[in-house]
Every structure is written in C-alpha cells, then in structure tokens.
Amino acid sequence: MNTNVNSSWWVLFITILVFSCKKSTDKPYPQPPVVPALTVNDVSQPRAAVGTTLRFYITANKTTSSTMTFNYSLANGTAVSPRDYATASGTLTIAPNQTQAFVDVNIAADPDNLRQPNLQFTLQLSNPVNCTLARTSATGTLITEDGAYLPT
C-alpha cells in the first residue's frame, strides 16, 4: 500500500470538507429593522385677549409600513392648568407611510392683557410603539411680556 497516495487522498478529503463547510460571506446576516425616531419642537406664541390654540408638531425622521403610536401629556411649569391652558393627555397615532402628528393645546384668554413674565408648560411623550423617541419633551411658551397693562 502506497502511503503517499493515501496521504494525498486524506489531504484532498480534508480540503474539500473545509471549503464545503465554510460559511458563505456573500449573504450578510439579516439586520434588525431601523425604526423611525420621533422629535417634537418647542413652540411659542403671544397670549391673546381671546382663547387660542398652540400646536406642537411631532415628526418622524422616516416613514414605516407600521402604525406608530405614543402617549402624550401636559405638565405645569410657570403656566398652570386650567388658569393658563387646558390640560390634556392621550395616545396619538401616525398612520403607515406618514411622518407627522400634532397636539393642539387650548390656551386660556387673557382679556386684561397684563404684562408679566412669559409662561411655560411642557408636552411630554412616552410609550412609543414601532418608533423611538429622539426627544421626549418640548416647551410651550405663552408670550405675555409685551402686554399693554402692568399688573397693579
């Protein structure tokens, strides 16, 4: 029996085995989907003698084929509910292939038009589904510093 021939067969067998069992690199591993990130921007507007609405826009950085939902709530700052604004909370939905939703906040009237420091409150976002929150809160500012009358 020729050992050189037997050795050659073993080398050939091992080589075929190694190359046939090697994982293919032309098919990358599946990547987890990247979900949209939501942002909300600060807003401000002058307070008026009649009630108005202040609108916060919530924007996704990309579309998705899934429905996105998240909760929102308002929190007092120097503006206090119900004196300065109507408190609100709930769940918002952004439909598939859309990128925007909004929250309208009812602002109380200031019939006296008093000059005072600006008033602020916070919109808070939480519990995102099929999205993430790039920014979880925004400030609403009621501009009152330019009122016509000084408080007495």
- Sequence of strands across the biggest β-sheet: 2-9-7-4-5
Q: Structural class of the secondary elements?
A: mainly beta
Task: Detail the poorly predicted runs.
Answer: none
Shape assignment: rod-shaped
> What is the total tally of β strands?
9
Query: Roughly what percent helix?
Result: 10-25%
Head-to-tail CA distance between termini: 116 Å
How many separate helices?
A: 1
Oligomer: single chain
SSE string, helix = H, strand = E?
A: HEEEEEEEEE
Biggest sheet details: 5 strands, mixed
Condensed summary:
The chain is mainly beta.
Structure commentary:
This protein is mainly β and 152 residues long. The chain is built from one helix and nine strands, in the order αβββββββββ. It has one helix at 3-21; strands at residues 37-40, 43-46, 52-60, 68-76, 89-94, 100-107, 119-129, 132-133, 137-143. The longest helix has 19 residues, at 3-21. It starts with a helix and ends in a 9-residue tail after the last strand.
Key phrases:
single chain, 152 residues, mainly beta, five-stranded mixed beta sheet, four-stranded mixed beta sheet
Which helices and strands appear, and what pairs or packs with what?
Layout: H1 3-21, E1 37-40, E2 43-46, E3 52-60, E4 68-76, E5 89-94, E6 100-107, E7 119-129, E8 132-133, E9 137-143
Parallel strand pairs: 1-8, 2-9
Antiparallel strand pairs: 1-3, 3-6, 4-5, 4-7, 7-9
